C-alpha cells in the first residue's frame, strides 16, 4: 500500500552557492537546471536519461548545468545537490570529471562519504548544519581538497555492504566471511574502527531502510515490516530510541515544497520544464 505522496521530498535547504534535498517516488518530466547537479542514491540505484540517450541506471551522477534530462527515482531515495557552476569547488569538480561531457557516473554511492547514522541524521533532523556537513564532506572529497582514505579497508567494505543490502539479507556470519575475519574479531574491529558496535550500525541501517521505504511511497507499517521490524510499533520505538524522532513526526515535518534559506545570499536556482519530453 502506498501513502500517495509523489514526489516525496525532504526540506529543500539553500546556502550560498549550494542547495540540497532528498527526493523519491517520482518520474520527472524532461527538465534542466541552471546549476551543476550531483545525484547520489541512498539505497540501490536510480534511472536517468538525457534527451539524446536511452535510460540507464546509476549509483551516482555529476550533471553539467543546463543539461536537459529525466530522473526516475526507481523506488529508491536520492540525495540531490545543486552547485553554482561558477564557484571554485564546482569548477574543480567539473575539471576533473566532466571535461566536455554532459554527465559523469561516479560509480560510488553516498556511503563512500558517510555512514548510515550520518545520513539518517541529515535526512530526519530539522537542523540544516547536519546536511551541510555531509555536503561539504562530499564536495571536498570530489574536488580532491581532502583525502578519503579508510581507517581499515575491511571495515569500509562491511559498512558498504550493510548500507546497500536489504536488512533481512545481512547476517554477521556472511559479513565476517567477506572480511576474512571471525565473527568475534569482526565485532571487535568494527567497534575499534568506527566507535560503535556492529549491532548498532546494523540497526541504524535498518531504520534508514524503513525511512527510505516511507519516502518511496510505502505506509509506515509496510515499511516497518519490509525492513524486518516486528510491526510499526517496534519501528517507532527503535527510531525514537536511536534518532529521537518518530516515523509519523518525520512524515509531518517533511511537508511538500518546504524551503529553508540558510544564507543571506542563497544559491540562484532555476529549473526549466519541457512538455512531453520535447526539449
Describe this structure in words.
The structure is a single chain. With 279 residues, the protein is an alpha+beta fold. It has two domains: 8-148 and 257-277, Jelly Rolls; 153-253, Homeodomain-like (Arc Repressor Mutant, subunit A, Orthogonal Bundle), CATH 1.10.10.60. The chain has ten helices and 13 strands. It has helices at residues 88-98, 116-124, 128-142, 153-164, 172-179, 183-194, 198-215, 220-227, 232-243, 247-253; strands spanning 8-9, 12-15, 18-24, 31-33, 36-41, 46-50, 56-58, 60-63, 69-72, 77-83, 103-105, 259-261, 271-273. Strands 1, 2, 3, 5, 8, 10, 11 and 12 form an eight-stranded mixed sheet that branches. It has a three-stranded antiparallel sheet with strand order 7-6-9, with no helix packed on it. Helix 7 runs antiparallel to helix 8 (220-227). The longest helix has 18 residues, at 198-215. It is globular, with a radius of gyration of 19 Å.
Topology:
Blueprint: E1 8-9, E2 12-15, E3 18-24, E4 31-33, E5 36-41, E6 46-50, E7 56-58, E8 60-63, E9 69-72, E10 77-83, H1 88-98, E11 103-105, H2 116-124, H3 128-142, H4 153-164, H5 172-179, H6 183-194, H7 198-215, H8 220-227, H9 232-243, H10 247-253, E12 259-261, E13 271-273
Parallel strand pairs: 2-12
Antiparallel strand pairs: 1-3, 2-3, 3-10, 4-13, 5-8, 5-10, 6-7, 6-9, 8-11
Helix pairs in contact: 2-3, 2-7, 4-5, 7-8, 7-9, 8-9
Amino acid at each position: 500500500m502506498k501513502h500517495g505522496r509523489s514526489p516525496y521530498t525532504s526540506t529543500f535547504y539553500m546556502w550560498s552557492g549550494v542547495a540540497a534535498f532528498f527526493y523519491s517516488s517520482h518520474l520527472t518530466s524532461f527538465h534542466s537546471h541552471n546549476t551543476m547537479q550531483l545525484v547520489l542514491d541512498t539505497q540501490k540505484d536510480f534511472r536517468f536519461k538525457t534527451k539524446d540517450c536511452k535510460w540507464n541506471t546509476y549509483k551516482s551522477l555529476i550533471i553539467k548545468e543546463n543539461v536537459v534530462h529525466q530522473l526516475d527515482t526507481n523506488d529508491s531515495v536520492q540525495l540531490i545537490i545543486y552547485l553554482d557552476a561558477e564557484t571554485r569547488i564546482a569548477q574543480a569538480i567539473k575539471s576533473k570529471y566532466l571535461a566536455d561531457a554532459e554527465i559523469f557516473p561516479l560509480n560510488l554511492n553516498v556511503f563512500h562519504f558517510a555512514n548510515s547514522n550520518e545520513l539518517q541524521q541529515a535526512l530526519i533532523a530539522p537542523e540544516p548544519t547536519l546536511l551541510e556537513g555531509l555536503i561539504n564532506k562530499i564536495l571536498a572529497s570530489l574536488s580532491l581538497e581532502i583525502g578519503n582514505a579508510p581507517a581499515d579497508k575491511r571495515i569500509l567494505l562491511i559498512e558498504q555492504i550493510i548500507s546497500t543490502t536489504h536488512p533481512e539479507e545481512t547476517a554477521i556470519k556472511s559479513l565476517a566471511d567477506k572480511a576474512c575475519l571471525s565473527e568475534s574479531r569482526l565485532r571487535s574491529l568494527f567497534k575499534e574502527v568506527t566507535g560503535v558496535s556492529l549491532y548498532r550500525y546494523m540497526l541504524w541501517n535498518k531504520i534508514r531502510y524503513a525511512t527510505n521505504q516511507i519516502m518511496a511511497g510505502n505506509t509506515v507499517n509496510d515499511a516497518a515490516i519490509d525492513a524486518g521490524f516486528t510491526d510499526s510499533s517496534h519501528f517507532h520505538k527503535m527510531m525514537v530510541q536511536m534518532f529521537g524522532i518518530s516515523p509519523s513526526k518525520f512524515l509531518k515535518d517533511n511537508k511538500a515544497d518546504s524551503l529553508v534559506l540558510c544564507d543571506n545570499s542563497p544559491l540562484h536556482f532555476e529549473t526549466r520544464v519541457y512538455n512531453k519530453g520535447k526539449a
